[in-house]
Amino acid sequence: MKLFPALIVALMIGLAGFALSRSLLEWQANNQQPVVSVAAEVVAKRADVRGRGSADSGLTRTYYYGTFEDQTGIRREFRLSGQEYGQLAEGDKGILTYQGSRYHSFQRRSSPTLP
Hints:
The protein is of the alpha+beta class.
């Protein structure tokens, strides 16, 4: 019976190590990618609320995502800050800048035609 708590702790440490190593590998892979800027359109937005309790309780966290489609039809989804999310609207067209899976910016164009 005394071995069970030690196994739980070891499992939790192993899972934390796995998550950290996965994040570091993604960070390193993104750093090796070129920074790309393409003409794109915002095709979808979504918010993912995680946690328990009400939004006012402080026990939840909201993650924001935007999906962009470039002129070749390729769609990419990126995690956004709340401020970036709030400034985007579906149908916005502009220049999307990203590096691997890392979002950099979206500069909206007022002209209906993109460069």
